[in-house]
Design brief:
With 139 residues, the chain is an all-alpha fold. It has a single domain, classed as Serine Threonine Protein Phosphatase 5, Tetratricopeptide repeat, CATH 1.25.40.10. Helix content is 63%, strand content 0%. The protein is built from 9 helices and no strands. The longest helix is centred in the middle third of the chain and has 14 residues. The radius of gyration is 15 Å and the shape is globular.
Length: 139
């Protein structure tokens, strides 16, 4: 759907960035992503998904949510972006937004945040200070 010119400008998107993310080196991945973003006229949804995921893993939920919402604006059926946006909203204690995104993600086949919400896992976040589910990899 979107032109993938990021691969021509930044071949590390198919090389080092996914590897850095997969091995948990999120700060380094963010640095490489910012280098790629600076070479483009604007951020692409592919870059936003990778950057949002790295932010989410670093518990920088506001930045992550912003990237996932950028994707959702242009592709409201992107289930992984919706599910990750729901998770970030719940972590920011924005229950209304979290539920909205969780329901949409479930509708498109990503039920993780919805199921966790229905089980009450996000209700305990502020009481014990721990995250309610393991963060997952995006597609």
């Amino acid at each position: 759907m979107w032109p993938n010119y990021t691969l021509y400008i930044c071949p590390t998107l198919t090389g080092c960035i996914p590897i850095l993310i997969n091995v948990g080196r999120y700060d380094e991945a963010l640095s490489e992503l910012e280098n790629a973003v600076n070479k483009l006229p604007s951020i692409t949804p592919h870059l936003a998904m990778s950057r949002g995921y790295a932010f989410m893993q670093l518990r920088k939920y506001e930045q992550a949510l912003s990237d996932f919402e950028f994707i959702i604006k242009s592709r409201p059926d992107y289930a992984s972006a919706l599910d990750n946006a729901a998770y970030c909203a719940f972590m920011l204690s924005d229950r209304e937004k979290g539920i909205k995104y969780a329901k949409e993600a479930r509708k498109y086949g990503e039920p993780h945040a919805f199921n966790d919400w229905r089980k009450g896992r996000y209700n305990n976040k502020s009481r014990n200070g721990k995250e309610s589910r393991h963060m997952k990899k995006h597609d």
